[in-house]
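Per reviewer request, we include the raw input and output of the structure prediction for the construct analysed in the revised manuscript.
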Amino acid sequence: MAEAQRELKLPEHSLITECPTRWGSKEMMIARVLEQLKAITQVLSGDRYARSLIPTWQDIEVLESIHKALHPLQEFTDALSGEEYVSISYLKPVLHLLSTSVLAENQEDTDLTRSIKTKALAYLTDKYSDPSIQELLDVASFLDPRFKTKYIAADNIPTIKTRLKTEIMQPARRAYNQEKRSRTETTTMPKNAQPSVEKGKKSLGSFFKTAVGSSVSCMQPEDVVEAELNSYLMTPTIDGEEDPLAWWKMHRINFPQLCNMARKYLCVPATSAPSERLFSAGGNIVTCTRSSLKPAKVDMLIFLAKNL
């Protein structure tokens, strides 16, 4: 095989075997066969007992059709399985891109390619067809400064804003009532019971500080949340390669209520691949020869393995 590759000036790559438990291994196997097709044909033709295994033009057409349909999907799944900047907020844009571009039928597609694309798109549509799942994906995409309302239907935006307001209002009302109660108790407290403060000369800035504080405290929680939502939607979107959590950390002072919601939703991974990698790391650490490791020690070793 290596001699045939050098003679035909092909990359000296080994063939790949499909692994049932590894997503994309079938597509990788097909892509490698198509890459090394000439070398495979030359090697098999040199053995009269193996000549029957030479791929026919029908076999090649089937492999090419499958490769054309699966190769873009493999690239997307590899990207979605990442751990940096990838969260559930990516699903809505990816589903939109798959339905409008990647899995869209082309005139050059064969019948087999069209069939694979149609079935894959139907599976994805059915998987995420539940209204509660769609609302979750919309909320996550809304809170991602890379997308916001770009991939959300205009009719669903009021529903998303209402859901966020409902989730934010409960702790906001509690904090507002607590602050109002403490302010009332301080006002109604007898003068002799109030802590004595040494009088000093006031600065000019102290008068403005009091004025601003009183105006903010008079705002109702509903108005504060509504102002945050409108201000957030007016900010420009960021580049798709930037980290949304870093953006929220930087703008937390401007959107304190929405920042808590972003931390709640954007921490959800887009796929189970990151957690499965942790299980694999644990399997590599807790072997038969290290079965006496304590759970705390295993936790530390896995943490070091994933963070160093």
